[in-house]
Amino acid sequence: MLNCETFSLTPEEIExxxxxxxxxxxxxxxxxxxxxxxxxxxxxxxxxxxxxRQNPAETLRRVLPKVREAxxxxxxxxxxxxxxxxxxxxxxxxxxxxxxxxxxLQVILLHLEHRDAGVSNxxxxxxxxVIEVLPKDTLRHEILNPLVSKAQLSQTVQSxxxxxxxxxxxxxxxxxxxxxxxxxxxxxxxxxxxxxxxxSCMCRQLENIAQGIGTELTKSVxxxxxxxxxxxxxxxxxxxxxxxxxxxxxxxxxxxxxxxxLPVVKSFCEKSFKADESILISLSFHxxxxxxxxxxxxxxxxxxxxxxxxxxxxxxxxxxxxxxNENQIPPQILEQEKKYISVRKNCAxxxxxxxxxxxxxxxxxxxxxxxxxxxxxxxxxxxxxxAICFYEVSKLLNxxxxxxxxxxxxxxxxxxxxxxxxxxxxxxEILELMSTxxxxxxxxxxxxxLPDLVxxxxxxxxxxxxxxxxxxxxxxxxxYACLPQVISSDQIYYRFLQRMFTIxxxxxxxxxxxxxxxxxxxxxxxxxxxxxxxxxxxxxxxxLGQGKSYWNRLRFLDTxxxxxxxxxxxxxxxxxxxxxxxxxxxxxxxxxxxxCYLLPKVKSTLKIPADKHLxxxxxxxxxxxxxxxxxxxxxxxxxxxxxxxxxxxxxxDAFQKKFYEKDLLDQxxxxxxxxxxxxxxxxxxxxxxxxRPMSDKTFEKKRRDSKIPTxxxxxxxxxxxxxxxxxxxxxxxxxxxxxxxxxxFNNQAFHAKYGNxxxxxxxxxxxxxxxxxxxxxxxxSMISLTDDSFRMRNTNSAPSSFSSNTSLPSTSRGTGNSVxxxxxxxxxxxxxxxxxxxxxSNP
Length: 843
Fold this sequence. Notes:
Blueprint: H1 4-7, H2 11-17, H3 25-35, H4 38-46, H5 48-54, H6 56-72, H7 76-92, H8 97-110, H9 117-131, H10 136-150, H11 157-170, H12 176-191, H13 196-213, H14 215-229, H15 235-247, H16 254-272, H17 277-293, H18 300-314, H19 331-349, H20 351-358, H21 363-366, H22 368-375, H23 380-397, H24 405-412, H25 417-424, H26 427-436, H27 453-466, H28 470-479, H29 489-506, H30 510-525, H31 530-545, H32 550-566, H33 569-575, H34 577-581, H35 589-603, H36 612-628, H37 632-647, H38 660-687, H39 696-705, H40 732-735, H41 746-749, H42 755-759, E1 782-783, E2 818-819
């Protein structure tokens, strides 16, 4: 609404701006275009696409004529709005192409030569989009025929510039014969125009024209024009000719490249340092494509000269002394330095292409020093660009990737978070190449020769955490999930896993906390020491699930969701099922609400009949929520959750056809968890032989006797076309898959990268129908948990499969207890405590 005091409107002005509310949209638009103010007319034109969708016939009949009248005297804002609206109507397909051409095309053509360059360009963009859909006859009569006169020297420069761009678009709509007869004469005329702006503009359209007329006409008509334009007195024309030649290299054969194009390119490069810096910027940007297109026709001397030229561009501007104060540098020098930075940035962008140019085998001799300079460039944009290209460089070097280990450390330690953010996009792939030396069959982890990697990774995370760029921090934590693939389990445990806990407990950004939680779960999944795994599980339950802060308890539920996704169903049921459903009694409504959303996934981890007792406890907790919940929002979610749980089908211990793939995937996860424990035991046997390490020969004999190969399959399959036995720890197939190595299990078993875990969809199959009655609720079926129940296991316990004789809250299949937790729940309340009755787990 208009504020009369703010605009100081007189009663007459208020009356003039007032519109009858009973008018329809069409009538209001007609009225405002006829008698309203410019701002009201602009608003109507902006709303034109909506009117066309609502009532196209009436809009064309009544509103569009008023729009034409208004545009004759319209200002810049209304013209720009009209150009956008006309384009939107075309894209919306509110009317047929024929109707659009009849109603709108003449309006567009009329305003192409508007005196304001911005308006003219806006209408031109609309016309170029319209040309894509118009039929040939309409294009010939309405656009091409008038263009003959518009392209003449007698017309304005603006008219001839518009003609160049229209000709470039029209070539894709006509056949080669029509182009040769009707369009190419105009093209030649405009290439010879007296104004350098027109020659340059037409030169840039020759690429589109060449694609429309084919190879033969391009060689006979377009190439001679380009060669002539490359010698033009105008630098912008020469630059346009050079860029067009580079883009068209694939069209020309070897003879044309060597005899015609190569001399032009050589001349252009030789003169580039004497010309304007803008030419160097373009040349540096296209140099990679140029070397690729001319590869194979260079003589050894020419090859060397182009390589030296590239090296010179990579250090352009770095030789100058910068000891003076920046505020005292003349503006023209500052502008020149900015252009030099752009040149070096373009060189970094083209670095992978130059590796191909020199052959990766010659990288160390020919390009390593240049790569070093780019990674240590004083300007952030250069280092940012080379960080983006780092993965491509690593792939090209293959087995020679070890040559750039130090540069990886340098970029990880870069003071700019932009550089770090660019590098970590492909950090898992880079580290994988580093760890295998670029050879997919290599089993030995080669990062042991790079001791600075772990400190650099930890420092990078701390630097990201200390900044305000939480998205970079989140991304970095997500990428750290690849670390089990490349460094040892102990290094992860002591240098990264504890840090994930700290972030989950103290960071204030929810996405960062969730990223840390998921990465911690992956670290736990591939941790090779049972004692460390139990300690992590204990911390998760005590510090998060039973934490004083409700915020920590919410994060515990997030962690449970990741556990369900990453681990086997039996693992979740054994360690996290009871601590999770205990939170149905949480004093904070938000925690109970979040748990209700998680309950279907919790139920999906159960199998009947082995987990019937856990199902009963889950049903008991849900009944208790239904009967005792006082928060109306939580109660509404509980009721919806009960219906969803009731519809879920039960997953059985035996394989079912409908759950076949999901059950196989879960069985494979469980198999791998057991395999970790067996490998731990075998490594202990290898290391303990009368108090000294076992000899390789003795260990190899034991390995052969056990029929255990030295490596696991490289890819952990999503589903396995076969069935594993009910006791996978003793089956021959499992023993054939064991991995014996000193660094980390996941170099092979985790080769599918942590991304494979993303593909593991949480099984939604489960359980029998709920009967949410409170009858049969027995107090004797409830148990309680205490902090004493979660003490760390004895270090001398046997390395069985997450043995239940530890003090962890094991809810192994076959036990039949339920939870009756009593806890406080504000954000700063006392720790949640309960007692855990001793129970035995069935094997």
